[in-house]
Amino acid sequence: MPVINQHALExxxxxxxxxxxxxxxxxxxxPFEAVGMVRQEIRHGHFLGYCLDPQRPHGFGSxxxxxxxxxxxxxxxxxxxxxxxxxxxxxxxxxMDFEKAQxxxxxxxxDLLAIVNDEKLAVAIELKIDSTEHSGQLRRYREQIxxxxxxEHGWRHLFLYLTKHGDEASDEDGEGWLALHLDMVANExxxxxxxxxxxxxxxxxxxxxxxxxxxxxxxxxxxxxxxxKLWSQHREALNFLMERRPDAASELxxxxxxxxxxxxxxxxxxxxxxxxxDDSSRSIVxxxxxxxxxxxxxxxxxxxxxxxxxxxxxxxxxxxxxNLRVRFVLGPSDPARRKAYYQALVAxxxxxxxxKITDSYTRLATKSVRVADDDDSETKADLxxxxxxxxxxxxxxxxxxxxxxxxxxxx
Length: 411
Description:
By secondary structure, the chain is of the alpha+beta class. It is built from 16 helices and 10 strands. The strands form 2 sheets. A 5-stranded mixed β-sheet has the order 1-2-3-4-5, with helices on both faces. The longest helix is centred in the first third of the chain and has 18 residues, at 63-80. The protein starts with 5 loop residues before the first helix and ends in a 5-residue tail after the last helix. The model has no long low-confidence stretch (mean pLDDT 85).
Protein backbone atom coordinates (compact mmCIF):
# COMPACT_ATOMS: atom_id res chain seq x y z
CA MET A 1 0.00 0.00 0.00
CA PRO A 2 1.53 3.35 -1.03
CA VAL A 3 2.72 5.85 1.57
CA ILE A 4 1.70 9.38 0.64
CA ASN A 5 1.72 12.81 2.20
CA GLN A 6 -0.79 15.64 2.16
CA HIS A 7 1.21 17.70 -0.34
CA ALA A 8 0.93 15.01 -3.02
CA LEU A 9 -2.85 14.96 -2.70
CA GLU A 10 -2.99 18.76 -2.78
CA UNK A 11 -0.92 18.82 -5.98
CA UNK A 12 -3.46 16.49 -7.57
CA UNK A 13 -6.74 18.17 -6.58
CA UNK A 14 -6.06 21.79 -5.57
CA UNK A 15 -5.93 24.34 -8.43
CA UNK A 16 -4.84 21.65 -10.90
CA UNK A 17 -6.20 22.72 -14.33
CA UNK A 18 -6.13 19.19 -15.76
CA UNK A 19 -8.01 17.76 -12.79
CA UNK A 20 -10.49 20.64 -12.94
CA UNK A 21 -11.07 20.05 -16.67
CA UNK A 22 -12.02 16.43 -15.98
CA UNK A 23 -14.27 17.52 -13.11
CA UNK A 24 -16.03 20.04 -15.37
CA UNK A 25 -16.61 17.39 -18.01
CA UNK A 26 -18.38 15.21 -15.45
CA UNK A 27 -20.24 17.96 -13.60
CA UNK A 28 -22.78 18.93 -16.24
CA UNK A 29 -26.54 18.80 -16.39
CA UNK A 30 -27.63 16.03 -18.71
CA PRO A 31 -31.34 15.36 -19.37
CA PHE A 32 -30.59 11.75 -20.23
CA GLU A 33 -28.82 11.15 -16.93
CA ALA A 34 -31.65 12.96 -15.13
CA VAL A 35 -34.26 10.49 -16.42
CA GLY A 36 -32.06 7.45 -15.72
CA MET A 37 -31.48 6.61 -19.37
CA VAL A 38 -27.71 6.04 -19.32
CA ARG A 39 -27.88 2.24 -19.25
CA GLN A 40 -31.44 1.57 -20.36
CA GLU A 41 -31.36 0.16 -23.87
CA ILE A 42 -35.08 0.66 -24.40
CA ARG A 43 -34.76 4.42 -23.89
CA HIS A 44 -31.66 4.58 -26.08
CA GLY A 45 -33.66 2.81 -28.75
CA HIS A 46 -36.59 5.25 -28.41
CA PHE A 47 -34.35 8.30 -28.75
CA LEU A 48 -32.34 6.91 -31.66
CA GLY A 49 -35.51 5.76 -33.41
CA TYR A 50 -36.99 9.25 -33.08
CA CYS A 51 -33.87 10.90 -34.52
CA LEU A 52 -33.62 8.40 -37.37
CA ASP A 53 -37.23 8.89 -38.45
CA PRO A 54 -37.42 11.48 -41.27
CA GLN A 55 -41.12 12.04 -40.53
CA ARG A 56 -40.54 13.36 -37.00
CA PRO A 57 -40.53 17.16 -36.36
CA HIS A 58 -36.90 17.37 -35.24
CA GLY A 59 -35.61 19.16 -38.31
CA PHE A 60 -32.93 16.55 -39.06
CA GLY A 61 -34.85 15.19 -42.01
CA SER A 62 -33.16 11.98 -43.08
CA UNK A 63 -29.64 13.11 -42.08
CA UNK A 64 -29.41 10.99 -38.92
CA UNK A 65 -30.49 7.88 -40.82
CA UNK A 66 -27.99 8.71 -43.55
CA UNK A 67 -25.26 9.20 -40.91
CA UNK A 68 -26.05 5.80 -39.36
CA UNK A 69 -25.87 4.03 -42.71
CA UNK A 70 -22.71 5.91 -43.63
CA UNK A 71 -21.06 4.55 -40.48
CA UNK A 72 -22.30 1.07 -41.44
CA UNK A 73 -20.80 1.50 -44.93
CA UNK A 74 -17.40 2.38 -43.46
CA UNK A 75 -17.61 -0.63 -41.11
CA UNK A 76 -18.62 -2.83 -44.05
CA UNK A 77 -15.62 -1.64 -46.05
CA UNK A 78 -13.29 -2.23 -43.09
CA UNK A 79 -14.57 -5.78 -42.75
CA UNK A 80 -14.54 -6.72 -46.43
CA UNK A 81 -11.75 -4.59 -47.89
CA UNK A 82 -12.79 -3.63 -51.41
CA UNK A 83 -16.62 -3.76 -51.50
CA UNK A 84 -18.21 -6.48 -53.60
CA UNK A 85 -20.84 -5.70 -56.19
CA UNK A 86 -24.07 -4.45 -54.62
CA UNK A 87 -22.53 -3.85 -51.19
CA UNK A 88 -23.39 -0.70 -49.31
CA UNK A 89 -20.75 2.03 -49.71
CA UNK A 90 -20.43 5.62 -48.44
CA UNK A 91 -21.13 6.83 -51.98
CA UNK A 92 -24.24 4.70 -52.40
CA UNK A 93 -25.53 5.95 -49.04
CA UNK A 94 -24.89 9.53 -50.13
CA UNK A 95 -26.99 9.01 -53.27
CA MET A 96 -29.90 7.19 -51.60
CA ASP A 97 -33.30 8.80 -51.02
CA PHE A 98 -34.33 8.30 -47.40
CA GLU A 99 -37.05 10.96 -47.14
CA LYS A 100 -39.90 8.42 -47.13
CA ALA A 101 -38.12 5.83 -44.99
CA GLN A 102 -40.16 4.20 -42.23
CA UNK A 103 -38.63 3.60 -38.79
CA UNK A 104 -40.20 0.89 -36.67
CA UNK A 105 -39.52 0.17 -33.01
CA UNK A 106 -39.68 -3.38 -31.64
CA UNK A 107 -41.14 -4.85 -34.81
CA UNK A 108 -41.32 -8.53 -33.87
CA UNK A 109 -38.77 -7.81 -31.15
CA UNK A 110 -36.20 -6.05 -33.37
CA ASP A 111 -34.85 -2.94 -31.65
CA LEU A 112 -34.90 -0.69 -34.72
CA LEU A 113 -36.00 -1.38 -38.26
CA ALA A 114 -35.63 1.03 -41.19
CA ILE A 115 -37.65 0.27 -44.32
CA VAL A 116 -36.57 2.33 -47.32
CA ASN A 117 -39.17 1.45 -49.93
CA ASP A 118 -37.73 3.73 -52.62
CA GLU A 119 -34.41 1.90 -52.36
CA LYS A 120 -35.86 -1.53 -51.55
CA LEU A 121 -33.59 -1.67 -48.50
CA ALA A 122 -34.48 -3.18 -45.10
CA VAL A 123 -32.10 -2.32 -42.25
CA ALA A 124 -32.37 -4.17 -38.93
CA ILE A 125 -30.51 -2.73 -35.94
CA GLU A 126 -29.93 -4.70 -32.75
CA LEU A 127 -28.69 -2.34 -30.03
CA LYS A 128 -26.65 -3.57 -27.07
CA ILE A 129 -25.53 -1.10 -24.40
CA ASP A 130 -24.68 -3.43 -21.52
CA SER A 131 -26.61 -6.60 -22.31
CA THR A 132 -25.45 -9.43 -24.53
CA GLU A 133 -26.93 -11.38 -27.41
CA HIS A 134 -29.76 -13.71 -26.45
CA SER A 135 -29.72 -17.25 -27.74
CA GLY A 136 -31.19 -17.45 -31.22
CA GLN A 137 -32.49 -13.89 -31.42
CA LEU A 138 -30.28 -12.69 -34.28
CA ARG A 139 -31.02 -15.75 -36.38
CA ARG A 140 -34.74 -15.30 -35.73
CA TYR A 141 -34.64 -11.60 -36.65
CA ARG A 142 -32.71 -12.30 -39.85
CA GLU A 143 -35.23 -14.93 -40.90
CA GLN A 144 -38.17 -12.63 -40.19
CA ILE A 145 -36.69 -9.81 -42.28
CA UNK A 146 -35.77 -12.00 -45.25
CA UNK A 147 -39.21 -13.64 -45.26
CA UNK A 148 -41.07 -10.33 -45.10
CA UNK A 149 -38.90 -8.44 -47.63
CA UNK A 150 -37.80 -11.09 -50.09
CA UNK A 151 -34.65 -10.90 -52.19
CA GLU A 152 -36.53 -12.33 -55.18
CA HIS A 153 -38.65 -9.19 -55.10
CA GLY A 154 -35.52 -7.03 -55.33
CA TRP A 155 -35.02 -6.26 -51.63
CA ARG A 156 -31.60 -5.89 -50.05
CA HIS A 157 -30.97 -6.43 -46.34
CA LEU A 158 -28.54 -4.91 -43.88
CA PHE A 159 -28.22 -6.33 -40.37
CA LEU A 160 -26.39 -4.11 -37.89
CA TYR A 161 -25.18 -5.38 -34.50
CA LEU A 162 -24.64 -2.04 -32.73
CA THR A 163 -22.59 -2.22 -29.52
CA LYS A 164 -20.35 0.13 -27.60
CA HIS A 165 -17.31 -2.12 -28.11
CA GLY A 166 -17.98 -3.18 -31.70
CA ASP A 167 -18.58 -6.77 -30.53
CA GLU A 168 -18.95 -9.50 -33.11
CA ALA A 169 -22.22 -11.39 -33.21
CA SER A 170 -22.01 -15.07 -32.34
CA ASP A 171 -20.93 -17.50 -35.03
CA GLU A 172 -23.91 -19.70 -34.31
CA ASP A 173 -26.76 -17.21 -34.76
CA GLY A 174 -25.14 -13.98 -35.96
CA GLU A 175 -24.42 -14.91 -39.58
CA GLY A 176 -24.85 -11.86 -41.79
CA TRP A 177 -24.86 -9.35 -38.91
CA LEU A 178 -22.32 -6.55 -39.26
CA ALA A 179 -20.50 -5.49 -36.08
CA LEU A 180 -20.94 -1.72 -35.72
CA HIS A 181 -19.16 0.31 -33.05
CA LEU A 182 -21.36 2.90 -31.33
CA ASP A 183 -18.41 5.29 -31.49
CA MET A 184 -18.55 5.22 -35.31
CA VAL A 185 -22.23 6.17 -35.25
CA ALA A 186 -21.57 8.95 -32.72
CA ASN A 187 -18.82 10.37 -34.94
CA GLU A 188 -21.17 10.48 -37.93
CA UNK A 189 -23.92 12.07 -35.81
CA UNK A 190 -21.37 14.76 -34.88
CA UNK A 191 -21.46 15.90 -38.48
CA UNK A 192 -25.22 16.42 -38.23
CA UNK A 193 -24.72 18.58 -35.14
CA UNK A 194 -21.84 20.54 -36.70
CA UNK A 195 -23.92 21.36 -39.77
CA UNK A 196 -26.77 22.64 -37.54
CA UNK A 197 -29.24 20.41 -39.39
CA UNK A 198 -32.05 20.31 -36.81
CA UNK A 199 -34.20 22.62 -34.74
CA UNK A 200 -32.38 24.30 -31.80
CA UNK A 201 -34.17 22.06 -29.28
CA UNK A 202 -33.42 18.87 -31.20
CA UNK A 203 -29.79 19.88 -31.76
CA UNK A 204 -29.37 20.56 -28.06
CA UNK A 205 -30.74 17.13 -27.16
CA UNK A 206 -28.63 15.33 -29.77
CA UNK A 207 -25.52 17.18 -28.60
CA UNK A 208 -26.30 16.22 -24.97
CA UNK A 209 -26.93 12.61 -26.00
CA UNK A 210 -23.58 12.31 -27.77
CA UNK A 211 -21.80 13.88 -24.79
CA UNK A 212 -23.53 11.40 -22.47
CA UNK A 213 -22.42 8.48 -24.66
CA UNK A 214 -18.82 9.64 -24.47
CA UNK A 215 -18.92 10.15 -20.71
CA UNK A 216 -20.36 6.75 -19.95
CA UNK A 217 -19.81 4.41 -22.88
CA UNK A 218 -17.28 5.68 -25.40
CA UNK A 219 -13.82 7.22 -25.52
CA UNK A 220 -13.22 10.98 -25.34
CA UNK A 221 -9.71 11.53 -26.74
CA UNK A 222 -9.20 14.87 -24.99
CA UNK A 223 -10.15 13.45 -21.59
CA UNK A 224 -8.04 10.37 -22.28
CA UNK A 225 -5.03 12.62 -22.83
CA UNK A 226 -5.73 14.50 -19.58
CA UNK A 227 -6.09 11.25 -17.67
CA UNK A 228 -2.80 9.94 -19.09
CA LYS A 229 -1.06 13.18 -18.09
CA LEU A 230 -2.47 13.06 -14.54
CA TRP A 231 -1.40 9.45 -14.10
CA SER A 232 2.13 10.23 -15.28
CA GLN A 233 2.48 13.18 -12.88
CA HIS A 234 0.46 11.99 -9.85
CA ARG A 235 0.61 8.19 -9.93
CA GLU A 236 1.23 7.75 -6.19
CA ALA A 237 -1.69 9.99 -5.19
CA LEU A 238 -4.05 8.30 -7.65
CA ASN A 239 -3.00 4.81 -6.52
CA PHE A 240 -3.59 5.90 -2.94
CA LEU A 241 -7.13 7.01 -3.78
CA MET A 242 -7.89 3.97 -5.94
CA GLU A 243 -6.93 1.55 -3.18
CA ARG A 244 -9.43 3.29 -0.90
CA ARG A 245 -12.24 3.50 -3.41
CA PRO A 246 -15.49 1.94 -2.16
CA ASP A 247 -16.18 -1.11 -4.31
CA ALA A 248 -19.82 -2.17 -4.19
CA ALA A 249 -19.29 -4.91 -6.79
CA SER A 250 -16.58 -6.62 -4.71
CA GLU A 251 -18.80 -6.43 -1.64
CA LEU A 252 -21.62 -8.02 -3.62
CA UNK A 253 -19.39 -10.84 -4.84
CA UNK A 254 -18.21 -11.47 -1.30
CA UNK A 255 -21.88 -11.82 -0.37
CA UNK A 256 -22.38 -14.33 -3.20
CA UNK A 257 -19.38 -16.31 -1.95
CA UNK A 258 -20.67 -16.34 1.62
CA UNK A 259 -24.18 -17.36 0.54
CA UNK A 260 -23.17 -19.92 -2.08
CA UNK A 261 -24.83 -22.76 -0.16
CA UNK A 262 -28.09 -20.78 -0.14
CA UNK A 263 -27.81 -20.12 -3.88
CA UNK A 264 -27.24 -23.84 -4.46
CA UNK A 265 -30.48 -24.60 -2.62
CA UNK A 266 -32.39 -22.03 -4.65
CA UNK A 267 -31.11 -23.48 -7.93
CA UNK A 268 -31.83 -27.02 -6.73
CA UNK A 269 -35.45 -26.06 -6.11
CA UNK A 270 -35.75 -24.41 -9.54
CA UNK A 271 -34.02 -27.10 -11.60
CA UNK A 272 -35.15 -30.27 -9.84
CA UNK A 273 -31.52 -31.41 -9.74
CA UNK A 274 -29.14 -31.52 -6.77
CA UNK A 275 -26.82 -28.53 -7.14
CA UNK A 276 -23.90 -28.21 -4.74
CA UNK A 277 -21.05 -25.70 -4.28
CA ASP A 278 -17.72 -26.67 -5.82
CA ASP A 279 -14.28 -25.14 -5.21
CA SER A 280 -14.71 -21.35 -5.10
CA SER A 281 -12.92 -18.14 -4.26
CA ARG A 282 -13.96 -14.54 -3.72
CA SER A 283 -13.58 -13.92 -7.46
CA ILE A 284 -15.13 -17.11 -8.92
CA VAL A 285 -17.98 -19.07 -7.30
CA UNK A 286 -18.55 -22.53 -8.77
CA UNK A 287 -21.42 -25.00 -8.57
CA UNK A 288 -21.81 -28.59 -9.69
CA UNK A 289 -24.77 -30.80 -10.59
CA UNK A 290 -24.36 -33.79 -8.29
CA UNK A 291 -26.15 -36.23 -10.60
CA UNK A 292 -23.48 -35.74 -13.26
CA UNK A 293 -20.75 -37.30 -11.12
CA UNK A 294 -21.79 -40.76 -12.37
CA UNK A 295 -21.54 -39.83 -16.05
CA UNK A 296 -18.80 -41.60 -18.06
CA UNK A 297 -15.36 -39.96 -17.67
CA UNK A 298 -16.93 -36.99 -15.89
CA UNK A 299 -14.48 -36.86 -12.97
CA UNK A 300 -11.44 -36.46 -15.22
CA UNK A 301 -10.75 -32.72 -15.28
CA UNK A 302 -7.10 -31.84 -14.77
CA UNK A 303 -5.45 -28.89 -12.99
CA UNK A 304 -8.79 -27.22 -12.20
CA UNK A 305 -10.74 -28.04 -9.04
CA UNK A 306 -10.18 -30.65 -6.36
CA UNK A 307 -13.35 -32.51 -7.40
CA UNK A 308 -12.06 -33.08 -10.98
CA UNK A 309 -15.54 -32.43 -12.39
CA UNK A 310 -15.47 -31.80 -16.12
CA UNK A 311 -18.42 -29.41 -16.42
CA UNK A 312 -19.10 -26.76 -13.78
CA UNK A 313 -21.23 -23.66 -13.46
CA UNK A 314 -19.41 -20.43 -12.62
CA UNK A 315 -20.45 -17.03 -11.29
CA UNK A 316 -17.88 -14.35 -12.11
CA UNK A 317 -17.86 -10.59 -12.59
CA UNK A 318 -16.51 -9.05 -15.80
CA UNK A 319 -13.32 -7.00 -15.92
CA UNK A 320 -14.92 -3.67 -15.01
CA UNK A 321 -17.06 -5.32 -12.29
CA UNK A 322 -20.26 -3.90 -13.72
CA ASN A 323 -21.81 -7.17 -14.86
CA LEU A 324 -22.10 -10.58 -13.22
CA ARG A 325 -21.90 -13.56 -15.54
CA VAL A 326 -23.14 -17.09 -14.97
CA ARG A 327 -22.09 -19.80 -17.38
CA PHE A 328 -21.13 -23.43 -17.76
CA VAL A 329 -17.42 -24.10 -18.22
CA LEU A 330 -16.04 -27.25 -19.80
CA GLY A 331 -12.71 -27.69 -18.06
CA PRO A 332 -9.34 -29.11 -19.16
CA SER A 333 -9.20 -32.85 -19.73
CA ASP A 334 -8.47 -35.38 -22.44
CA PRO A 335 -9.53 -33.76 -25.76
CA ALA A 336 -11.64 -36.75 -26.79
CA ARG A 337 -13.60 -36.66 -23.52
CA ARG A 338 -14.19 -32.92 -23.77
CA LYS A 339 -15.28 -33.28 -27.38
CA ALA A 340 -17.80 -36.00 -26.50
CA TYR A 341 -19.52 -33.75 -23.95
CA TYR A 342 -19.43 -30.73 -26.23
CA GLN A 343 -20.87 -32.64 -29.18
CA ALA A 344 -23.68 -34.00 -26.98
CA LEU A 345 -24.66 -30.42 -26.15
CA VAL A 346 -24.48 -29.28 -29.78
CA ALA A 347 -26.46 -32.29 -31.01
CA UNK A 348 -29.23 -31.49 -28.51
CA UNK A 349 -29.42 -27.91 -29.74
CA UNK A 350 -29.01 -26.35 -26.28
CA UNK A 351 -27.60 -22.81 -25.95
CA UNK A 352 -23.79 -22.88 -26.09
CA UNK A 353 -22.75 -19.42 -27.48
CA UNK A 354 -19.62 -21.14 -28.86
CA UNK A 355 -19.48 -22.66 -32.32
CA LYS A 356 -16.15 -24.38 -31.72
CA ILE A 357 -14.66 -26.08 -28.69
CA THR A 358 -11.56 -24.37 -27.27
CA ASP A 359 -8.49 -26.21 -25.99
CA SER A 360 -8.72 -25.86 -22.19
CA TYR A 361 -11.66 -23.85 -20.84
CA THR A 362 -14.75 -23.62 -23.02
CA ARG A 363 -17.31 -21.16 -21.65
CA LEU A 364 -20.88 -22.05 -22.58
CA ALA A 365 -24.39 -20.58 -22.27
CA THR A 366 -23.29 -17.30 -20.71
CA LYS A 367 -25.95 -15.08 -19.15
CA SER A 368 -25.25 -11.76 -17.46
CA VAL A 369 -26.90 -9.20 -15.23
CA ARG A 370 -25.99 -5.61 -14.40
CA VAL A 371 -24.73 -5.28 -10.82
CA ALA A 372 -23.11 -1.81 -10.79
CA ASP A 373 -24.57 1.51 -11.90
CA ASP A 374 -23.04 4.96 -11.94
CA ASP A 375 -25.80 6.48 -9.81
CA ASP A 376 -25.29 3.95 -6.96
CA SER A 377 -29.03 4.17 -6.27
CA GLU A 378 -29.57 0.49 -5.56
CA THR A 379 -28.99 -1.09 -2.17
CA LYS A 380 -26.91 -4.21 -1.57
CA ALA A 381 -30.15 -6.10 -1.02
CA ASP A 382 -31.46 -4.95 -4.41
CA LEU A 383 -28.29 -6.11 -6.16
CA UNK A 384 -28.28 -9.48 -4.41
CA UNK A 385 -31.95 -9.97 -5.35
CA UNK A 386 -30.91 -9.38 -8.96
CA UNK A 387 -28.27 -12.12 -8.63
CA UNK A 388 -30.85 -14.49 -7.17
CA UNK A 389 -33.19 -13.79 -10.09
CA UNK A 390 -30.37 -14.57 -12.53
CA UNK A 391 -29.59 -17.83 -10.71
CA UNK A 392 -33.27 -18.85 -10.70
CA UNK A 393 -33.68 -18.15 -14.41
CA UNK A 394 -30.51 -20.06 -15.27
CA UNK A 395 -31.59 -23.01 -13.14
CA UNK A 396 -35.05 -23.02 -14.71
CA UNK A 397 -34.06 -22.60 -18.37
CA UNK A 398 -30.47 -23.76 -18.92
CA UNK A 399 -29.56 -26.43 -16.37
CA UNK A 400 -32.42 -28.86 -17.23
CA UNK A 401 -31.62 -28.48 -20.93
CA UNK A 402 -27.97 -29.33 -20.31
CA UNK A 403 -28.96 -32.24 -18.11
CA UNK A 404 -31.17 -33.71 -20.83
CA UNK A 405 -28.46 -33.18 -23.46
CA UNK A 406 -25.66 -35.00 -21.70
CA UNK A 407 -27.94 -37.78 -20.43
CA UNK A 408 -27.37 -39.41 -23.83
CA UNK A 409 -23.78 -40.15 -22.76
CA UNK A 410 -24.95 -42.72 -20.24
CA UNK A 411 -25.45 -45.11 -23.11
